[in-house]
Design brief:
Dihydrodipicolinate Reductase, domain 2, 24% strand, alpha+beta, 4 helices, 208 residues
């Protein structure tokens, strides 16, 4: 999960531990771009970019949702090209997201707390975080020899560096995103797939 390897996520963790905006009760996410979603390619806008909203919920609340409500618009291939979902984490904590493969959106996340809010621009590959009093912190991407095709893709080097560190330490998993978190996210995604009614004829979906 490359999102977790960005310096902005380490900073966000610091702010949360310092109780910067109090208890977070709501996360709002919008994420959209023009996507070619095809069933034969295993397409699904929820499985493609919706999982980034799910990992943010994991990061903020530290647990799996206790309730999942998901609605989607399916294309002629029978796969989702737009999706709205609300995850309930209990104790009046929620995440609401709108994910689209039909239009470009602001691609941001807002964390609403009892003392204020934090906004993450390009939240899944965040290099800009705005906190109280509209104070913005920036993390410019490293320079690279070539241009990249996708948003902040140069930031994949953060993930590569983290993998290298884990290999050097002979670790079998990365503490930034554990095996248990990976399985937890897959369980949530599988429940969402069932709710929206997407079926892949050549894929066996196993119970996790």
């Amino acid at each position: 999960m490359w999102s977790r390897c960005f310096p902005s996520y380490a900073r966000l963790q610091e702010l949360l531990l310092a109780d910067c905006i109090g208890e977070i009760t709501h996360i709002q996410v919008q994420h959209g771009y023009h996507a070619n979603v095809q069933c034969t390619l295993g397409g699904s806008i929820t499985l493609d970019i919706g999982l980034y909203a799910l990992q943010l919920g994991q990061f903020i609340y530290g647990c799996a949702p206790v309730g999942i409500k998901c609605n989607a618009h399916l294309n002629g291939d029978g796969v989702d090209v737009e999706c709205e979902f609300v995850l309930d984490y209990g104790q009046n904590r929620k995440l609401a997201a709108f994910i689209s493969g039909l239009e470009s959106l602001e691609n941001s996340a807002k964390l609403l707390g009892t003392k204020g809010e934090i906004k993450l621009s390009n939240y899944w590959c965040c290099t800009s975080l705005t906190k109280l009093s509209n104070i913005t912190e920036l993390w410019p991407l490293p320079t690279a020899k070539y241009e990249f095709n996708y948003t902040n893709a140069c930031g994949l080097r953060y993930e590569a560096e983290e993998v290298r560190k884990c290999i050097e330490k002979r670790l079998l998993e990365c503490s930034l995103y554990t095996h248990a978190q990976s399985l937890e996210l897959l369980q949530v995604v599988e429940e969402m797939r069932k709710q929206i009614g997407v079926v892949y004829d050549d894929i066996i979906c196993l119970d996790l």
